[in-house]
Design a protein that fits this description.
DNA-binding, 12 helices, homodimer, six-stranded parallel β-sheet
DNA sequence: ATGAAAGCGCTAACAG
DNA sequence: CTGTTAGCGCTTTCAT
């Protein structure tokens, strides 16, 4: 692989001059620039990003980190796509790691990121007191949180209207005549779980429906947990007539249980889930869901991160994007199909 | 961040000695080692991976690349998990990029990888004549191909028995009484598409069923294409009684079409898909599918890559893993449910 | 067993 | 405008 030195020698200029051409410095004569660019092309020279990273001051390494909780969750896949797209367009490489909802692994990756010399990081913290992330914020590394914020910490964050989104979903179910609505939540430590629960409670209050604690179950945001907890709900003496599932994996687990029991959706049990997938319409019946703009979350977060890298002193911001209720057939007689 | 120099000064030894301790060199007295280790802990020292990478000889940068065609495809997500797991266990960071089936983007990422100084790369080439990847192989970088091989190139590769897997699926459909079996394939340039087609043809031959070209459609391995091509098949004058879909995204697209037309699965149309998802059972009806061991593919590929990095001259190998037919309800009266 | 020193490829400060 | 030079933090000789 050709190096700066090779290019300089071949072009008959100093090494620094080549660097200037590469970095689009003003102080290069058009003639020299042309000569150097020709040699660069001729030798197929490519900048060594590692050396560049080592030497460069903070904020110019052209590498950012992305730490996501669960790559098996299609929602995060959308976020990843948004991040990747925007990063690529701005000449940033993304070091992407999946900590699979394990705090220990998150810590490990946080260390790797730090020692890879990234310019900044986009992360969905394990919970709002995530020490690893908080330490990193304090260390001065530019960080944008997605999906979940940190408690009492100044940092940029991109979230969605979890509470409002859930409210709308429950409202729809109520309007369709449901009064016993089961709610399967994710881990209570994850802020989004609690926000969604608040939306549920608010909707019940709004329509004067008494809250029945036995209809609310907490799990761990995974398929298995959706499967088990829906079983528990359906086995109640007075089972719910409708189910709200707290994320997409829980939804899929619940569907498995419902189908296994031979129940009809929506006649025996209606279901609305948080998180829409582009293939939700391929489910039978097509799923009514609260759609999060995952791609947009990723894009916006990256935009904010690059802005903060460029100007570390700018005001911290919290961006809240709106969810959208996509009504299909799993919740009952509304014929609408928005998606 | 503390550096090697800081540690050396604090411990009162030379910089090189600290490096030796870090690299578990034999030539350090137990006493010195202990002293240094204590300081390392005290200062919370962490190796700077960038500097290490810049200085290190090839094969010791502790960073590998992973280039996948489509992160929205759950199959590749499984592969990613397998790679990540094995890499992490061996102190390798993974630079993971998704080229979204676009050759231009693949090329771009290939360049980034090269200039990030990775030790090796796992990649699913865009097609078997993928120039970018072939050039990289020739440059001497250790490379393992997954899912698809390269034509006429010496390189390690991990694939599955695409032809045999499809054969078994078609065989099942035939045994269930189907003779008009539609086949929706992915891009013909992708080797797996053609192998799966060969399995289809072999099964027809084996059971003396004439091949009807109008039942075979080529698309681009995506959801949209599954949707459209299944529409075409179902609109034929003599439509198929069963559908074989060439990958998971195509399957989901086909399901959408089938449900939209109000057809009953499997009575009106049976369906078997290539690729199983852990939530295939949550579909209604649960999907009969050819399951690829994605996680295992990723794990094995990484194992092979690290072996090649350690010994670049070892024999090249092609590992073919077996698929498994998971029979559920989408194909008809078999009551079996293996998944 | 340890110290000293070269240098990986690059950026940026300094000198002309 | 361009050349020269000092490191970034580390690994790896070469001495001792």
């Amino acid at each position: 692989m050709a190096s700066l030195k090779d290019v300089a020698k071949e072009a008959g200029v100093a090494l620094g001059t080549v660097s200037r051409v590469l970095n689009k410095s003003e102080n290069v004569s058009p003639k020299t620039r042309k000569k150097v660019e020709k040699v660069i092309k001729k030798l197929g020279y490519q900048r060594n990003r590692v050396a560049r990273r080592l030497r460069a001051k903070e904020g110019k390494t052209h590498m950012m980190g992305l730490l996501i909780p669960d790559i098996q969750n299609p929602f995060y896949v959308e976020v990843v796509r948004g991040v990747e797209e925007y990063a690529l367009a701005n000449d940033y490489a993304v070091l992407m790691c999946n900590f699979a909802q394990e705090e220990a692994r998150e810590k490990l990756y946080l260390n790797i990121m730090r020692s890879e010399g990234i310019d900044g990081l986009i992360v969905a913290p394990v919970h709002q007191w995530d020490k690893g992330v908080i330490d990193l914020v304090h260390s001065g590394l530019p960080i944008v949180c997605v999906d979940r914020g940190l408690s009492g910490i100044e940092a940029d964050v991109v979230v969605v209207s979890n509470s409002q989104g859930t409210f709308e979903a429950i409202e729809l179910l109520v309007q369709l005549g449901h009064e016993r609505i089961g709610f399967i939540a994710g881990k209570p430590q994850i802020p989004t779980s609690m926000e969604r629960l608040r939306g549920y409670e608010a909707a019940l209050r709004r329509y004067d429906i008494a809250k029945d604690e036995s209809l609310i179950k907490f799990g761990d945001s995974k398929h298995e947990s959706g499967k088990e907890l829906s079983k528990e709900l359906l086995s109640l003496e007075k089972p719910p007539t409708a189910l709200f599932t707290g994320n997409n994996l829980i939804t899929l687990g619940a569907l498995e249980t419902i189908h296994k029991r031979g129940l009809n959706i929506p006649d025996d049990i209606a279901i609305v889930g948080f998180d829409d997938m582009y293939w939700s319409i391929s489910l039978n019946p097509p799923l009514t869901a609260v759609s999060q703009p995952g791609y947009e979350i990723g894009r916006r977060a990256t935009e904010m991160l690059l802005q903060r890298i460029a100007d570390p002193r700018r005001e911290y911001a919290k961006v809240e994007l709106r969810t959208k209720l996509v009504v299909r057939q799993s919740c009952g007689s509304h014929q609408g199909s928005t998606g």
